[in-house]
């Protein structure tokens, strides 16, 4: 490879710039080449509609992928949970670095925990997945909450709490960590309470499929366990024929006996946003060693969930 500066395509948001900056430093270390950030505005950044209305799928990545295909940037960094499950033939996920904390968190007034919120508390989130699971938990535990749909960046969402418009907002732990605001979290939501979005906490580094040298270099940043986990989660999402904004939660994690990793467990949930009906199942199998094994794990769990009526809980299914 030459020693020219590599161009990294990124969304303009503070979070996207922060995580792309971290990837840029890592890529520069493994390639010995300088990396510059190229800011790209996506439809999801400019639209004020709720994600459920505009479809969610691809709204944060299409413009980045177009820039890759036009050769305007050499590689792009995405939040993996924003990626459509279908991978374009002319683009490749060169690396999925080690995942950060996949959990959702609460930022609430008066440092309240989720279970300490008063009856009638208003909780903001733009995610049907979060609404479905928070409302289901609240119904099962006698909590009288109201979920309120919101959009905006991290600063905007937290400001709703500081200004007294909302009692709490739900955010991703990884995002707050990457922008140095994890200390504002008042409660980490247990995986048993809210399953994260498929791929949450993970980043995807994507480039053109014909750049073999760059693919090999970026591959130095790949974490095989993270890739296997998110592949299983995204396979579940794809088999449910659900888009990024569907009320689907999934998490694959490793089960270890002491220091020895034995198995991978995949958990999935889908539910109506009011929390009245949910389907939540899990499966466990050998740690996938190939892409096909990881996708099979996701498809198997999806089939079980569909057999229990999951399709009827998702509203509009992805086309």
Structural write-up:
By secondary structure, this protein is α/β, with parallel strands linked by helices. It is 32% helix and 24% strand. Strands 2-1-3-10-4 form a five-stranded mixed sheet, with helices on both faces. Helix 9 runs parallel beside helix 10. The longest helix has 18 residues. The chain is globular.
Structural class: alpha/beta
Strand content: 15-25%
How many strand elements? 13
Strand order of the largest sheet: 2-1-3-10-4
Q: What Rg is obtained from the alpha carbons, in whole angstroms?
A: 19 Å
Question: Roughly what percent helix?
Answer: 25-40%
Query: Mean pLDDT, as a whole number?
Result: 89
Given the C-alpha coordinates, what overall shape results?
A: globular
Question: Major β-sheet, in short?
Answer: 5 strands, mixed
Number of helices: 10
Intertermini distance: 40 Å
Poorly predicted spans: 44-48, 50-57
* SSE pattern, N- to C-terminal: EHEHHHEEEEHEHEHEEHHEEEH
Which short descriptors sum up this protein?
319 residues, alpha/beta, five-stranded mixed sheet, 10 helices, 24% strand, globular
In brief, what are we looking at here?
This protein is α/β, with parallel strands linked by helices. Helices cover 32% and strands 24% of the residues.
